[in-house]
Amino acid sequence: MIFCVEDDGEIRDLMIYALHSAGFEAKGFTDGAELFSALEEENPDLIMLDIMLPGEDGIAILKRLRRNMSTVDTPIIMATAKGTEYDKVTGLDLGADDYLAKPYGMMEMVSRVKAVLRRAKPERESVLCAGGLELNKGEHTVAVHGVQIGLTLKEYETLQIFMDNPGKVFTRDQLLQSVWGTDYVGETRTVDVHIGTLRSKLGSCGDYIKTVRGVGYRMEAKG
User: Fold this and answer.
1) Which 8-state DSSP code applies to residue 69?
2) pLDDT digits over 159-200, tens only?
3) Among 17, 57, 151, 210, which residue's beta carbon has the most beta carbons within 10 A?
4) How far out from the chain centre does Cα 82 lie?
């Protein structure tokens, strides 16, 4: 999923059309408020972020994204109508992965998106660690204090969501949709049962998954 933050409706529609044509899923947003609202529901694979936006500008949004644990590693491509060296350097210094100077062609944009995603792929397949807990995305394994444990597919996917987003609270509905899919016909109690068995299998690391009363669950970030 690619998030496109662009206040010009025509340009935003062209971006989404070009990305769809290249085989990507994409959603468009007019400003930072819409972006951060969407991020509460879904983490994209990449964010296209215009610098010149109404209200909070792209640079300020970039700073917030890099301070947020759930988006600190999300690839970001900045776009600016100015095309000045200052905008480019500022964006890259603050953690942007690439930039595009307007006006740019849609083929160039898609090419940049593919290149940034290729560079980000090895990092996304790396080992995730939280205290004594280790999840290896490439090998699809989980270890507690160096000892591998067996998890079901749903337990593994649930744990990966938490470890990809340490500190972020997920509602039961969000976990149900992310792990079981939108077509699943069942109750949120299913999530509670799986969290319980997952905690049990994680042993001493099971208490990393915290219950947020009245909301859902989160994984406590541990070094």
Assistant:
1) T
2) 999 988 888 889 988 888 778 775 555 666 888 999 999 999
3) 151
4) 28
Burial of 137 (0-12, 13-18, 19+ CB in 10 A): middle
Based on its alpha-carbon atoms, the radius of gyration of the chain, rounded to whole angstroms, reads: 19
- CATH topology for 2-124 is Rossmann fold (3.40.50)
Query: Is there a contact between 49 and 98 (Cβ–Cβ < 8 Å)?
Result: no
Q: Which residues pair with 5 in a beta bridge?
A: 29, 49
Tens-digit pLDDT profile for residues 65-81: 988 867 888 899 998 87
CA pair distance 86, 41, nearest whole angstrom: 33
Task: Give the start-end residues of each E strand in 145-192.
Answer: 147-149, 170-171
Torsion region of 174: left, alpha or beta (phi above 0 gives left; psi -120 to 50 gives alpha): alpha
Q: For domain 127-219, which CATH number applies: 1.10.10.10, 3.30.70.20, 2.30.29.30, 3.90.1150.180? A: 1.10.10.10
- Whose CA is closest to 96, among 68, 46, 50, 62? 62
Distance CA 18, CA 20 (A): 5
Contacts 24+ apart (CB under 8 A), 78-84: 78/49, 78/50, 78/51, 79/6, 79/48, 79/49, 79/50, 79/51, 79/104, 80/50, 80/51, 80/52, 81/51, 81/52, 82/51, 82/52
d(CA 219, CA 57): 31
